[in-house]
Amino acid sequence: MDCLKAISVKDASELNGSIVIQGSKNNVLPIMAATLLCNGITRIYNCPMIEDVRVMCELLNCLHVETKYENHVLTVDTGCSCYEPLPYELTSKLRASVLLLGPMLARWQKAEIGMPGGCAIGLRPIDIHLEGFMKMNVDVKLYRNVLTCSTYYLQGTEYTLRFPSVGATENLIMAAVGAKGRTILRGVAKEPEIVELCKYLMHMGVLMEGVGSDVLIIKGTKELSSCDYCNVYDRIVAGTYLLMAAALPSKIKLIGIENICYIKNIMNVAALLGVNMVHIDNYLSVESFGNVQGGIFKTGLYPEFPTDLQPVLMTVLAGAAKDSTLVETVFEKRFQIVTELIKLGADIDVKGRNAQIRGGCHLQGHTVKATDLRQGAALVVAGLMSSGYTTITDVSYIERGYEDIVRDLQGVGAEISYI
Ligand code: UD1
To answer: How far apart are alpha carbons 85 and 87 in whole angstroms?
Structure first.
């Protein structure tokens, strides 16, 4: 990762062109972890070439899993995999490293892994993951950033998640595959990434009921066959560009949008911001006058508006004609973008989980700092909206999840480059 890299972006008077939407980060990471549940070769198509995928490959390599990446196809060979502890130096680079716990327990009945890292957007505890494992007969110990989990055998159980955590749901599903008997998980997350993981596991031979609902029943299954998987488009990357189109006069095509229902929630918000959208074949045709009026919005669990797009929405509202309110209900500290937007001339007041965004502000280019993945991408959008030039530093955060945001925005005519 090149921490010194920065992006320079000039204000755009209009956006015109097309962007091919990359494969989904949050979808592919649990699928990569789940390959551990079988012995053999899995090809994952439409895999994005991003830093988080690279780190996940390194973690799998620690477990003697072979990985090869070519032309957006990731080949994972678990044939020679064997148990090893996973070092904190690697696990701390990635929140999704915690998703290896479930498959490791299912396969080897033990896992010693360093605590996960990831974007600093709140406390991000893993108590729900661990409570679920304990219900499955797992002994859990935490000592100096290293988590040790072990069990004689995973026991199918009934467990109600106190909050529908995406990661905990994924982890517990994967552990349940290796458990004796049936596991009933109540209050699970219903995000598209959960549905896709379940579909992949069912292809491997796992029997499951309730996919897409808040109760999942998983039958422990020993013999799984490896099977290939085609990754879905990244709904958050697509949403970034959809919301960006609201802020500026735009006529753009977002290509690679197969299953439109995964972004209906984002399209609803974009429509309220004045964006016209038509879905044809595999692309979304997007047009707007770039005339955002403001409004009242809140993030929530799927199918509500995703928290990952809250910084982009905040940015768009910072350039609106009238005042807006934005409420963050998922992560308690996800307003890091505010200090940077204020440097650009925005007027935003945060109280707890509520942000009041004053309308009618003129945004002026400045140097701003990316401090997490989604906030960083939102700052690039802010650069397009601010007069003159804006420099975004610490671009490595953006590269964790966006394959090449500069290439994408050049595709719609933006004057943007790495410096
Ligand atoms: C995933 C996504 C992330 C997205 C988030 C919410 C990946 C790799 N990351 O993160 O981009 O923003 O879902 O849609 O897919 N919580 C607990 N205890 C736990 C687990 C979570 O209290 O054991 C809380 C968290 O602090 C947070 C909330 O639950 O406030 C949501 O977290 P969770 O759904 O687990 O998010 P992640 O899986 O980490």
So the answer is: 6
